[in-house]
Amino acid sequence: MQFPIKKFLSYYKPYLRLFLLVLGCAFTVSAVSLIFPLLVRYITKDVLEGDLSIALNEVFWIGGLMLVLVVIQNAGNFFVDYKGHEIGARMESDLRAELFEHIQKMPFRFFDQEKTGQLMTRITNDLLLLSELYHHGPEDYIKYLVRFIGAFVILFFINAPLTMAVFAFLPFLGAFALVFNKKLNSALGNNKQRIADINAQVEDSLSGIRVVKSFANERIETEKFSKANQRFLESRKNTYKAEAYFFNGMETFIQLITITVIVLGSASIVKDSLDLADLITFLLYITYMIEPIQKLTHMSMQFQEGITGFQRFMEMMNIEPSIKNRPNSIKLANLEGEIEFKEVSFCYGDHDHNVFVHLSFTIQKGEYIALVGPSGAGKTTLCSLIPRFYDVSGGAVLIDGINVRDIDIQSLRSNIGIVQQDVYLFSGTILENIRYGNVHASDEEVVMAAKRANAHDFIMSLPKGYHSEIGQRGVKLSGGQKQRLSIARVFLKDAPILIFDEATSALDNESESIVKESLEAFAKNRTTIVIAHRLSTIRYAKRIIVLTEEGIAEQGTHDELLEKNGVYSHLYSKQFN
Ligand code: ADP
Ligand code: MG
């Protein structure tokens, strides 16, 4: 991928003024630093070799001047260090916020493929060195460019042949730096990938720690981890090797140059074409000339991490969410709630089998239907097509006659209350979790929803009631309790279309029948789809749709279906006999 320089630079925009000030300071500091060796030269050459009685006075004056310069230099550096870093950190935080927001917009399909741990790395680690790059990058280039050019010009005036001798080394130095820099970069990129792998592995193992322990498979997990860890170690080893080559190679060049200057310089002194003060000045300035080359390449290496971070950032940012609003998408108002599947075909991926082929049916507004069928038939999938968690591969899903693809996604989803098969609760209190269904709901409304979901009693029996912390993913609650909270959450959302996907599967018979009653009361005048295994749960439904892998096998009321003696009656008799 070519480096997206324009995009990279665009992040400076909000801080441009302050940043230019920082650059101005960096420039001044470097320019001032060029003066010191000149003062040393002046002392060693003109003052000490002249009249010593005048010299003492002058040395003090020069000392005073040096003090002033030091103050300017350090005050400037202070500003550059402090504000420069701050700007970098702010920019990094801007990018991180943007990335998080972008990832939130991604559709289900994206999260089916990406590992959470990998995504975490992208949001946290990958961006860490960007702040360094953002402020040190331009600042250091200015600093070292000023020093390099300044030193070169000054040295050239002092002694042109010796300067050219030093200069002759530079192309080799540059070439060496380029080659090894490249190796280093690829090693660093590799590091990033490996650490992301480790994070993904840790995330997976720790999320499933209860499964790991129940199978006593800690050893297997540890082995998986140590493989990832080992690969990271290998990658680190390669990086250090490349680094060692790079730094020591550079060091060798610097020593070669220094030796050359000492030898040639001393020879010149012997030949009387150079004096000692000039040689000292030369040795002082030589670092000014070499340092930039050393630093610029070293910097580019340091910054390479920032650069690869930015590239990985852009990789993510360039993924367009495949499910998004069309231009002029329709905002739903006064929804009736009729749902129509029209010749819908769907498969999860190019290599997956079709879950549906030309599936058609309609659910009238306000209708309460049940969806039953063997597991894997596609019940959950069918429901996830309505809020556009996935887009159909063929045909269309229509709500009130409007293709869901033409509806504003926010508006579509705010009209659908869905209790998903896998309940997910956030870490936080019970109150917060229920209120997630409607952040504007009052405490009373939350309690009301909890009562309807038959959750109030168990919540009140907890020491802190609604303010009880439920732990990460709700680990401190039973499966049935979690389900009731997620039902309360959807009750609170108060949407005209309701989907309950095995929402009461973990409840005992008694509490299920309570929830069922309030659910049926709540469902009045709302279009409702209930998926349930326990067929007793769905008897109330005006219509039962029986879904099998071949599509809709039959539909009708409970009694009609029993009479038909088909799939449904078969399922039913298995459950009750
Ligand atoms: P049900 O809810 O009726 O048990 P699902 O809708 O969950 O069935 O699954 C229908 C089919 O789609 C199954 O074959 C399942 O393996 C497949 N499937 C479900 N979710 C995904 C997914 N995220 N990616 C790929 N295939 C999936
Ligand atoms: Mg399911």
Explain what the structure shows.
This protein folds into two domains: 5-317, Up-down Bundle (ABC transporter transmembrane region fold); 339-576, Rossmann fold, CATH 3.40.50.300. It is elongated. The two termini are 64 Å apart. The model has no long low-confidence stretch (mean pLDDT 89). The chain has helices at residues 5-10, 16-33, 35-47, 52-104, 108-113, 116-123, 130-158, 160-207, 209-214, 218-270, 276-317, 379-385, 409-414, 430-435, 443-452, 456-461, 479-493, 509-522, 558-564, 567-576, and strands at 339-347, 354-363, 368-372, 394-399, 402-403, 416-419, 497-501, 527-531, 543-548, 551-556. The protein is α/β, with parallel strands linked by helices and 577 residues long. Magnesium ion is lined by residues 379-380, 421, 501. Adenosine-5'-diphosphate (ADP) binds at residues 112, 348, 352, 355, 373, 375-381.
